[in-house]
């Protein structure tokens, strides 16, 4: 073989060796892939061994335990002796069937919702609005209906209307003043001489009024001759504040009271006046009964006056304080004694005759007119009109409130045909709608029909829930979504969907717990939806998925057989490649040796 032919063969062998090495590497990689596939098949098989199915257990009417695959439909459908569950998504909404959603949207009230399931009937009855009744009773009294209907007897007015001020009930006392025409002229005529001296200050005029007062104090004279009984004097008296006075014959003589030359019968006239004012202890000048005068007297205690100044004010007042500390009106005799003391002791008491004493004398002269006041009762139209206007305003305001209220409300009376099943849908309604028995109104959301009339129950709810502001009232979850959402029928009946959601936390459960009954004898109870972990629900169980395990086992064994067959095939291919590689390597080494010798001979030939 020539050099060029050997070199060509050597290149061909080198190419085949490289190709064999590449093919061997590819087969080795394929064997590695088979090993990974074996590992994957093992993992799938192990996963199938861990796979479980979820079941829900309940009891039939005979008490037999019934088990079925756990689906949303299974949990949401009513059955006796069955716990009620709700499927809750991550937004806190209960996921309901399409039919439950449709029934809710088409129902304005709980009663209508129950009727759609055939578990109750509803009768709408017109009833009196309690707020209207309360206001009407306030205005008209217990027979308010008769007053509103216009059939009431006027004499039965009650409530605010019965408090209407009537003019005959408003009277005021008008006093008609009359002067004693018998005694007063005798008093004036008998005392004229002393009064003239007193006011004109002639002679001892400043003392002359003592004569008038002395003759009034139990004047003792002969009733036939008018002669003064000197043996009866002096007489002693005591003021209302305990000061003594003594009246002697010096002030009682006839010459003192009316002067020389005046007929003695005037002494008898004064005797008649004296007997009248001193013996009739209750006879007082009515004008003294003046509240302002009384108030002035009572204010003396805190006026700051002391000593004689205070005493004079007290003695000249129409009032005094008795032993019990009560303010009393003085009799005329008491006023005569007190005025006598002040007049007699005016110098030591510091009383000015021209002002204080004269004013006191003039007030007493008015007392001595012995005025009588006849009390006549006449309608007090001013006071009546004032109260009547106030009452009229109150009536108008009360009637305005009444007219702003609805006369009647509708009471939806629910009769349960199946109380147990009805309870199921009562619970569902409240989980979808909130605490109200009436469809809630949500801004910006069309959640179906709403009540077209005002129900009695709505009024009661408005009062009960007035202070609440949460999902119990507004129909929304904490994150502002409807309390419910629709779960389409396909997913509603899918066990895999619910199984996956519960195990992966995308779905949770709520269960109904019962509290106290709300209606005696109805069987309908108040229920509370409470979150529960599905593994804590005794009527939910998990079991191995035998079907999935069997399928995985068959698949795993078949995969292993396929892998083993291919692995053997790859081994045979590698052995053939190794044999061919050895032969080529030997031939490669031989040709390379021949080429080396040829090159060596050629070099020797030319050397």
Structure description:
This protein is an alpha+beta fold and 607 residues long. It folds into four domains: 3-51 and 547-605; 52-129 and 407-544, no CATH class; 131-170 and 380-403, no CATH class; 178-376, no CATH class. It contains 22 helices and 16 strands. It has helices at residues 3-50, 72-76, 98-105, 110-116, 130-140, 144-149, 183-200, 205-216, 254-258, 265-279, 291-299, 307-315, 332-344, 346-349, 353-367, 381-403, 419-433, 456-464, 471-474, 489-492, 495-504, 546-605, and strands spanning 52-59, 65-69, 85-88, 94-96, 120-128, 171-178, 235-238, 244-247, 319-321, 327-329, 372-379, 408-416, 484-486, 508-517, 525-532, 540-544. The strands form six sheets. The chain has a five-stranded mixed beta sheet with strand order 13-4-3-14-15. A three-stranded antiparallel beta sheet has the order 2-1-16, covered by helices on one side. The protein has a two-stranded antiparallel sheet with strand order 5-12. The relative contact order is 0.17. The model has no long low-confidence stretch (mean pLDDT 81).
Q: In terms of topology, how is this protein built?
A:
Elements: H1 3-50, E1 52-59, E2 65-69, H2 72-76, E3 85-88, E4 94-96, H3 98-105, H4 110-116, E5 120-128, H5 130-140, H6 144-149, E6 171-178, H7 183-200, H8 205-216, E7 235-238, E8 244-247, H9 254-258, H10 265-279, H11 291-299, H12 307-315, E9 319-321, E10 327-329, H13 332-344, H14 346-349, H15 353-367, E11 372-379, H16 381-403, E12 408-416, H17 419-433, H18 456-464, H19 471-474, E13 484-486, H20 489-492, H21 495-504, E14 508-517, E15 525-532, E16 540-544, H22 546-605
Parallel strand pairs: 4-13
Antiparallel strand pairs: 1-2, 1-16, 3-4, 3-14, 5-12, 6-11, 7-8, 9-10, 14-15
Helix pairs in contact: 1-22, 5-16, 7-8, 7-10, 8-13, 13-15
């Amino acid at each position: 073989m020539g050099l060029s032919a050997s070199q060509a063969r050597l290149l061909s062998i080198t190419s085949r060796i490289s190709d064999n090495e590449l093919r061997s590497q590819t087969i080795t990689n394929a064997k590695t892939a088979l090993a990974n596939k074996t590992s994957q098949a093992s993992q799938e098989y192990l996963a199938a061994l861990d796979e479980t199915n979820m079941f829900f257990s309940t009891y039939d009417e005979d008490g037999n335990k019934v088990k079925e695959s756990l689906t949303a439909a299974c949990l949401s459908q009513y059955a006796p002796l069955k716990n009620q569950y709700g499927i809750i998504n991550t937004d806190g909404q209960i996921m309901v069937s399409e039919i439950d959603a449709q029934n809710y949207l088409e129902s304005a009230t709980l009663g209508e919702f129950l009727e759609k399931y055939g578990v109750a009937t509803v009768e709408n009855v017109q009833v009196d609005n309690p707020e209207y009744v309360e206001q009407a009773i306030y205005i008209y009294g217990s027979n308010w209906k008769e007053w509103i209907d216009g059939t009431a007897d006027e004499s039965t007015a009650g409530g605010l209307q019965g408090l209407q001020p009537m003019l005959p009930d408003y009277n005021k006392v008008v006093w008609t003043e009359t002067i004693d025409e018998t005694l007063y002229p005798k008093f004036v005529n008998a005392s004229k001489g002393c009064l003239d001296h007193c006011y004109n200050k002639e002679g001892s005029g400043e003392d002359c009024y003592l004569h008038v007062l002395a003759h009034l104090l139990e004047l003792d004279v002969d009733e036939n001759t008018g002669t003064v009984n000197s043996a009866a004097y002096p007489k002693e008296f005591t003021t209302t504040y305990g000061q003594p006075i003594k009246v002697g014959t010096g002030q009682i003589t006839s010459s003192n009271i009316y002067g020389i030359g005046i007929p003695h019968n005037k002494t008898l006239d004064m005797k008649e006046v004296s007997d009248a004012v001193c013996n009739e202890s209750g006879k007082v000048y009515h004008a003294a009964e003046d509240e302002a005068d009384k108030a002035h007297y009572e204010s003396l205690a805190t006026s700051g006056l002391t000593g004689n100044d205070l005493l004079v004010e007290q003695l000249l007042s129409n009032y005094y304080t008795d032993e019990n500390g009560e303010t009393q009106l003085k009799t005329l005799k008491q006023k005569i004694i007190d005025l006598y003391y002040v007049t007699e002791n005016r110098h030591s008491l510091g009383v000015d005759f021209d002002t204080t004493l004269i004013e006191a004398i003039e007030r007493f002269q008015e007392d001595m007119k012995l005025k009588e006041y006849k009390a006549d009762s006449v309608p007090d139209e001013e006071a009546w009109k004032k109260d009547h206007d106030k009452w009229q305003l109150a009536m108008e305001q009360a009637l305005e409130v009444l007219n702003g209220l609805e006369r009647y409300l509708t009471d939806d009376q629910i009769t349960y045909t199946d109380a147990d099943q009805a309870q199921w849908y009562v619970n569902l309604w409240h989980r979808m709608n909130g605490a109200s028995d009436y469809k809630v109104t949500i801004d910006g959301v069309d959640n179906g029909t709403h009540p077209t009339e005002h129900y009695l129950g709505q009024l009661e709810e408005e009062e009960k829930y007035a202070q609440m502001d949460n999902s119990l009232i507004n129909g929304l979850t904490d994150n502002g979504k409807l309390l419910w959402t629709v779960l389409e029928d396909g997913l509603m009946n899918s066990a895999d969907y619910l199984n996956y959601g519960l195990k992966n936390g995308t779905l949770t459960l709520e269960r109904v717990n019962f509290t106290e009954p709300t209606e005696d004898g109805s069987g309908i109870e108040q229920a509370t939806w409470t979150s529960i972990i599905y593994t804590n629900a005794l009527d939910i169980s998990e079991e191995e998925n035998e079907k999935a395990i069997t399928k995985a086992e068959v698949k795993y064994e078949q995969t292993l057989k396929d892998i083993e067959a291919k692995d053997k095939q790859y081994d045979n291919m590698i052995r053939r490649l190794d044999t061919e590689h050895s032969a080529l390597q030997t031939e490669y080494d031989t040709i390379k040796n021949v080429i080396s010798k040829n090159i060596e001979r050629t070099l020797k030939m030319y050397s």
